[in-house]
Design a protein that fits this description.
The chain is α+β, with helices and mostly antiparallel strands. The protein has one domain: START domain (Alpha-D-Glucose-1,6-Bisphosphate, Chain A, domain 4), CATH 3.30.530. It has a 7-stranded antiparallel sheet with strand order 1-7-6-5-4-3-2, with helices on one face. The chain contains 2 helices and 7 strands. Strand 6 and strand 7 form a beta hairpin. One of its GO terms (biological process) is cell division. InterPro entries: START-like_dom_sf. This is Cell division inhibitor. Keywords: Cell cycle, Cell division.
Length: 155
């Protein structure tokens, strides 16, 4: 069983409060997800993020195939980090840690995703050509959107 890790970080010229308010609101996921993924939240998300929260999405991650994705928020430390884990969806494993750290002139936001592709050996063969490039593209889009929303970090 091969588990892959994607690690991304970004510095933005905003406060920890602003970063937390944006990142911990599931409604904002649609803003930072590429349009071609047809991302739609189908569960009721009328409360602030909380441990045990279940969030359901419909997303089109690859090849135009609509997929239901169900995540649980498993850990939260207010204004520091939260963890979402896929309960059902396109990955055999998806464990996504979101960290926010105050730095001079803003915040550093860090994503660490541990994931396993489905389909065993076939999935592992497809990973470097299909899955990894798609994840890199999605997170590059997120970084670009966050820069558009909040501006570039200058030290």
């Amino acid at each position: 069983m091969k588990i892959y890790t994607l690690h991304k970080s970004q510095k933005l010229p905003i406060s920890v409060d602003e970063a937390w308010e944006f990142l911990s609101n599931p409604k904002n996921l649609k803003i930072i997800t590429p349009d071609y993924m047809s991302f739609d939240i189908v569960s009721n998300i009328d409360r602030p993020l909380y441990t045990g929260q279940i969030i359901q999405y419909i997303v089109t991650p690859l090849l135009g195939i609509k997929t239901k994705w169900v995540s649980e928020i498993t850990h939260i430390e207010d204004k520091k980090y939260f963890v979402d884990e896929q309960l059902y969806g396109p990955y055999a494993l998806w464990h996504h840690k979101h960290f926010i750290k105050e730095i001079d002139g803003g915040v550093e936001m860090e994503d660490i995703i541990d994931y396993k592709v489905p389909l065993g050996f076939l999935g592992q063969l497809a990973h470097p050509f299909l899955v990894k490039p798609k994840l890199e593209e999605i997170f590059a889009y997120r970084q670009t959107k966050l820069l558009e929303l909040f501006g570039a970090y200058k030290k």
